[in-house]
Amino acid sequence: MVRKKAGGAGNSERPIGVFDSGIGGLTVARAIHRVLPHEDLVYLGDTARVPYGTKAPSTVVRFSCEDTNFLLRQEVKAVVVACNTASAWALPTLQREFNVPVFGVIVPGAQAALAKTKNKRIGVIGTNATIRSGAYARAILEREESAEVFAQACPLLVPLVEEGWVANEITRLTLEKYLEPFAKQRVDTLVLGCTHYPLLKRAISKVLGKQVALVDSAETCAKYVEAELSKQDLLVKQRRRPGKIQPYVTDETAPFESLSKRFIDVPLEPAVKVDVTVK
Ligand code: DGL
Predict the structure, then answer these.
(1) Is residue 221 annotated as part of the catalytic site, yes or no?
(2) pTM higher than 0.70 for the full model?
(3) Which residues of 151-174 are buried (b: 16+ CB within 10 A; e: fewer)?
(4) Does the beta carbon of 219 sit less than 6 angstroms from any atom of ligand 1?
């Protein structure tokens, strides 16, 4: 495995690496770009092997190590695991194995949920693999043992969002079915534990009602990354130009280029196809 030191002169000028199983992690890249507009980002979408949310934990860990290795070869100063599934299963391994700061989405999401909830009854939605990991529940309960966490896998939501169906009848019915238990469970806060779900915020709010606070794991992760990079003196110092976002994908670039506009509203550099399994 490539091991790179994060410390040392000039490191703060390097890009931040962000990886996801595919395109959805652009919601995290967008949130980071909003909070840190002068940072360059290198984004890797493992589009050849998406989805991760249906895969076995060991597969998710292996892919995540390859993705991180690729980002380190691009000389990034830190790695953000935008994918909730990869954060849920692979974060401890990545933090142990790689010698750069590695941040995930779970802890910031858990902290934000605890800051928002009043009755300590928190719902979490995500892919099958994320929910199966119990990572959000653990992160919440480690910080507040009297909280109650209700988790629901919503595997149909990723394809609906990728189809662009964020506000139609089928999506509404699907959300009603998935979110129904939360009313009985009286949750007052719901963690959107998947890269794609920020695009469904409005539809989810319509189903649950305004009284349920939504935690956007992309936004909370971006604020966390800002705070952590600042602590570690890794924020870019003097750059005036807007940060560039360079996407890499492991499958054809064309579908990524055409879908990306749904997930991010700033221009990206042209996507480049790479093979992350080649060292
Ligand atoms: N990026 C994944 C996540 O946030 C969703 C897509 C997938 O299953 O790979 O969990």
Answers:
(1) no
(2) yes
(3) bbbbbebbebbbeebbeeeebeeb
(4) no
